[in-house]
Amino acid sequence: DAGITQSPRHKVTETGTPVTLRCHQTENHRYMYWYRQDPGHGLRLIHYSYGVKDTDKGEVSDGYSVSRSKTEDFLLTLESATSSQTSVYFCAIRQRGATDTQYFGPGTRLTVL
Amino acid sequence: QQQVKQSPQSLIVQKGGIPIINCAYENTAFDYFPWYQQFPGKGPALLIAIRPDVSEKKEGRFTISFNKSAKQFSLHIMDSQPGDSATYFCAARRTGNQFYFGTGTSLTVIP
């Protein structure tokens, strides 16, 4: 699992509330990613980071913000959760070498009522 | 708009059969094509990957075939086993840091 943990693993919240998901890695990887997984859509990139305080948007970034104040933590925030943000969220780290590999965390299942 | 189109959505084969999953793309800025395997309740895991200057890559029972001119690539699983039952995702890396995934194929291998 490349030392990746996500918290919480499950969360139920109400529309309009702020939500923060945390991704923590123990191996000092530069690149970190947030994806959402939905039936019929596969995995879609929300935001990614290429270093401390360096982030960029993915294809479905509206309604989400991220922060990375230290190498090991990458936070995903839903400022005001909506039902359309009900999904499974995966964090990944990227290891570049002979292969360009993303290692995914165990996921967070978020339900917005 | 789906950048990587994957088919079929689901696939059922008998043990020993050769399931084939197909993916297609349009963006010529894609320069790396990995396949991921995902079991229920787990995150995806890299299975095999190919670069566009190679037409075929094999790793164990898994083979990627790549057709650059047609902008298509496919995964073949030789001698499939019930333990291969999982969801498979193709993906493409746009030059740089962004990855785009297909919609996934649910494979069931019947004993």
Describe the structure.
The complex is a heterodimer of chains A (about 110) and B (about 110). Chain A is mainly β and about 110 residues long. Helices cover about 0% and strands about 60% of the residues of chain A. Chain A contains no helices and 11 strands. In chain A, the strands form 2 sheets. In chain A, strands 2, 4, 5, 6, 9, 10 and 11 form a 7-stranded mixed beta sheet that branches. Chain A has a 4-stranded antiparallel beta sheet with strand order 1-3-8-7, with no helix packed on it. Chain B has about 110 residues and is an all-beta fold. Chain B contains no helices and 11 strands. In chain B, strands 2, 4, 5, 9, 10 and 11 form a 6-stranded mixed beta sheet that branches. Chain B is globular, with a radius of gyration of 13 Å. The model of chain B has no long low-confidence stretch (mean pLDDT about 95). The interface of A and B includes residues 40, 43, 44 and 90 of A.
Short description:
The complex is a heterodimer of chains A (113) and B (111). Chain A is mainly β.
Question: What labels would you give this structure?
Answer:
heterodimer; A: mainly beta; four-stranded antiparallel sheet; globular; B: mainly beta; six-stranded mixed sheet; five-stranded antiparallel sheet
